[in-house]
From TrEMBL, chain A:
This is U7 snRNA-associated Sm-like protein LSm10. Residues 27-99 form the Sm domain. It comes from the Eukaryota. The gene is LSM10. InterPro entries: LSM_dom_sf, Sm, Sm_dom_euk/arc, U7_snRNA_Sm-like. Coiled coil: none annotated.
TrEMBL record, chain B:
This is Sm domain-containing protein. Transmembrane segments: none annotated. Residues 1-30, 109-134, 232-304 are annotated as: Disordered. Residues 153-325 form the Sm domain. Residues 1-13, 232-243, 264-285 have a biased composition (Basic and acidic residues). Residues 110-123 have a biased composition (Low complexity). CDD domains: LSm11_M.
Length: 133, 328
């Protein structure tokens, strides 16, 4: 697996599975995937909130956060190092103000497009995942 | 026999053969270098015939010798070595190959590591253009004629919309903002959002409360605000009780729209504030005010309507009840 310039975010921007790539490409999950590395607040279905840095979002909107402040609906706060949220439990994701929504979506789609083209032409294998950020 | 002589002939052996003084006839017959060599005798003699020089290669038959001469399998001839090296380097990107591919590039996009795709992509892009690329952004405009198409119109024309958000049972609140992007699941990215919501009640109250509607939501909000403003609680109590008897309507927030049972998506447009008429709803408000008279702790945590402003918000479509474009 090749990786482009070293970056602080450890996770890969594009998933390996073609199924997940297609699901993500045709839905708004790409916006959330473009938020990897940003500090966001996720409002959950159970009226709790989790504020932390996005590590990874997959095609089913499952979110993994780091350095999280998890606040109960009663207002009780807990500090967590790592939090995994099931996609179905997400209600809102507060996007940081400095993020341009359209640009983020377009960048993510371009990355998927590149990976797909690379896989079909460059190598001899059909499924080739390129890790990049 | 001649081949053997040819093979084993080396300058040294020649010399040794010549320098040797008169050999014994028997030995002469066994000497492979001599003319009088008798192979049959060599085969049946008890001892092996003396070898002309030390590290001579022995073969079992002529065919073996022949294949040895040809180079045979595994023999490290220079061309074999090269072939093996090339095979080993197969996966690794050859800089020379990269250079060649770069020259083929029609457009000149990003970086060296994508050489594989860029050269091919340039050629194939013309072929691929027949099949348009479908992604979330292109799908937004594909929905013409359907309710999602109406939403797309709101995106294009930057119409402010109100999105009703659901709790596990019933209405949670309303988000008022501009939609930037959406998808088929009704996941929406919105900007400039004003959210008015009430957290769901817990326990017994959940069973006894009447279903929250938009009008009730804003009534509660205005009520809360009015409660917050005036100081003595008793005054409010009397005021509420007096209003209960009458059919006088309080002034709800001017923005309330269609009530909860409205099923039509996006077609409902309300111009005027919808006022609640039942006495029961007054009783509901009365309950709220009664709760307000309870100890301060409960008042803070219990069934209050909140408002907040969020600059950029992503809403998961699962939580959307309906979307209501606001008339300008």
């Amino acid at each position: 697996m090749e990786s482009e310039a070293a970056d602080s975010a450890p996770s890969c921007a594009i998933v390996n599975s073609i199924r997940e790539r297609t699901i993500a490409e045709n839905s708004m999950v790409v916006l959330l995937q473009g938020l990897q590395g940003e500090e966001v607040t996720v409002d959950l279905r159970n009226e709790c909130t989790a504020r932390g840095r996005v590590v990874n979002v997959d095609a089913f909107m499952n979110v993994r956060l780091e350095d999280v402040r998890y606040q109960d609906r009663r207002g009780q706060s807990t500090q967590l190092q790592d939090l995994f949220i099931t996609g179905r439990n997400v209600r809102y994701v507060h996007i940081p103000d400095h993020v341009n929504i359209m640009k983020t979506i377009q960048n993510q789609l371009a990355k998927i497009h590149r990976v797909r083209n690379f896989a079909s032409e460059g190598g001899s294998r059909k499924e080739f995942a390129k890790k990049m950020k | 026999m001649e081949e053997r002589e040819r093979k084993s002939v080396k300058p040294d052996s020649k010399q040794s053969a010549l320098s040797e003084p008169e050999p014994i006839p028997e030995a002469d017959k066994l000497n492979v270098c001599s003319e009088k060599f008798d192979p049959l005798l060599a085969l049946y003699s008890p001892a092996a015939p003396p070898l002309p020089f030390p590290n001579i290669k022995c073969f079992n038959n002529v065919a073996e010798y022949e294949s040895f001469l040809k180079g045979g399998r595994g023999r490290a001839k220079p061309e074999n070595v090269e072939k093996r090296q090339r095979k080993a380097m197969k996966g690794v990107a050859d800089p020379e190959r990269i250079e060649r591919l770069k020259k083929l590039m029609v457009n000149n996009p990003v970086s060296e590591s994508e050489v594989g795709e860029s050269s091919g992509a340039a050629a194939r892009r013309s072929r691929r253009r027949q099949k348009p690329q479908k992604n979330v952004l292109t799908r937004m405009s594909l929905c013409k004629g359907s309710p999602l198409g109406e939403l797309h119109r709101c995106v294009e024309e930057r119409i402010r919309v109100r999105v009703h958000i659901r709790t596990f049972k019933g209405l949670r609140g309303v988000c008022s903002g501009f939609v930037v992007a959406f998808d088929k699941f009704w996941n929406m990215a919105m900007v400039d959002v004003d959210e008015t919501y009430r957290e769901p009640l817990l326990g017994e109250a959940l069973y006894h409360e009447k279903a929250l509607t938009i009008s009730r939501l804003f009534e509660k909000l205005s009520l809360q605000e009015s409660l917050g403003c005036s100081e003595p609680i008793k005054k409010q109590e009397t005021r509420e009780k007096s209003s209960e008897g009458q059919s006088a309507n309080p002034k709800p927030a001017p923005m309330s729209c269609s009530a909860w049972p409205a099923n039509t998506r996006e077609d409902s447009r309300t111009a005027e504030p919808k006022l609640s008429k039942d006495a029961e709803s007054k009783a509901d408000k009365g309950n709220v005010s009664a709760k307000a008279q309870d100890p301060a702790a409960r008042q803070k945590t219990y069934g209050k309507v909140h408002t907040r402003h969020i600059n950029q918000l992503f809403i998961r479509g699962e939580n959307v009840i309906l979307v209501n474009p606001q008339p300008l």
